[in-house]
Specification:
Layout lengths: L25 E7 L2 E3 L3 E10 L9 E9 L2 E2 L5 E8 L2 E3 L9 E3 L2 E6 L14 E10 L3 E11 L10 E8 L26
């Protein structure tokens, strides 16, 4: 408006703002032993965080890529794979685990064969415990990424854990397991 005449001196403009729900921010934390021996179960913990939660109808997998000494691991490198479910360790028949080789990595879509179509993310934080018993010595690299169950597109950044597995030196062994990261003032639990 003109200050003297109160007449408009410019045309009116409008602004349109498109407001939508933000994409879910999904990330993982993976913890596990740095060193282990063949034939001994190695405890790992995966924690998934989501804020905000994705659509309840969306399904996901955690794609796990495993290599040994920089080469593709083989299903025979695993003596046993277990998941803690319903208060007990469950070990599917190794023949039922759908492994795929992709270049220099062995690939597994968690939680197949238990949930073949993927899983919904219906809580902002949840964890799963699993144990791997390695059959062969070597340095294993496991990288986990949350992927869309339909498109296999990644929806999180990858996280990696390394475990160096050696042959047992004696019949007596001790394994200490605990978190790799923590917060000041928060208790941490270690198992031996």
């Amino acid at each position: 408006l003109d200050a003297d005449s109160a007449e408009p001196v410019s045309s009116s403009e409008s602004v349109v703002t498109d407001v939508s729900e933000p994409d879910a921010d999904i990330w993982l934390q993976l913890q596990g032993a740095v060193e282990a021996e063949t034939g001994t179960p190695v405890h790992y913990v995966g924690t998934l965080f989501a804020d905000p939660l994705p659509d309840a109808n969306d399904l996901f997998f955690v794609e796990v890529r495993i290599s040994r000494d920089g080469q593709a691991a083989d299903p025979s490198d695993l003596e046993l794979a277990e998941i803690f479910l319903g208060g007990q360790w469950i070990a599917p028949d190794p023949e039922d685990i759908p492994w795929n080789v992709d270049g220099d990595e062995l690939v597994y879509l968690f939680p197949q064969p238990v949930m073949n179509n993927g899983f919904p993310i219906d809580e902002p934080e949840w964890s799963w415990d699993f144990r791997l018993t390695w059959a062969n010595a070597g340095t294993y690299e496991a990288t986990a990424t949350v992927v869309d169950a339909d498109s296999a597109d990644p929806v999180s950044m990858p996280v990696t854990v390394y475990t160096t597995v050696s042959e047992p030196e004696s019949d007596i062994s001790l394994q200490l397991q605990g978190p790799l990261v923590g917060e000041v003032g928060q208790p941490l639990q270690y198992k031996g």
